[in-house]
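Protocol step 4 of 6: record predicted structures for both targets in the notebook before any analysis. Target 1:
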Amino acid sequence: MLRTARKGAGLSQVEAAERAGVGRATVQVAERTGETSTRTLCALASVYDRDLALVPAHVPEPDTGSTGRGNANAKGRPSPPGNGGTAPTNGA
């Protein structure tokens, strides 16, 4: 993705590095591995005239259980803690 952005900006690795204030090797490693510091990533994004968006790498699915209502009882209300959403029994 970084390489594509750099080439889209019409820059060599040396030109991008100079404009971002980092070494050419830093640009090379970032393009090859995708790993770099936040500062370098922001600098390169600015040089390439790109915006950065921070998104979670993984968004867990909500726990819907078997009812599809999350942790709720049959009427859609949150279940009280401790009873697992079951109705109390009469001592049985």
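Target 2:
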Amino acid sequence: MMEMDVETVVREPVSPHALRASALRQARWLMAFYGITPEELVARVPAQMAAVDSGVPRALPVKYRHPVTGDTWDGEGSHPQWLRRALLQDGYRVAELRVDGHGDAGASSGVVSPIV
């Protein structure tokens, strides 16, 4: 078995042609794995994805709102500190913090009391 020095491997330049060929192999493999057709690649994208492609940040709907502070979270990424505090220290349940038909928060009654 041939031994290779890690430093030598890392420092060797890779031609743009080799990088492109590697990217094409990966793309073809991913298309086959997920069953993606070439037509799907050129099809119109949904409006939400078009905003990302155009460089315009997409505004996601708020999924969770603290009924007292008004802090919000769209449900993407790591849990915000206010949500952790509301659930672990203030005694709220997830259902109480959901909005837009997902739970009680933001209901016309106003404030949702924590469970004591």
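Step 5 preliminary note on target 2. The chain has two domains: 13-53, 58-116. Residues 103-113 have pLDDT under 50 and may be disordered.
Proceed to step 6 after PI sign-off.
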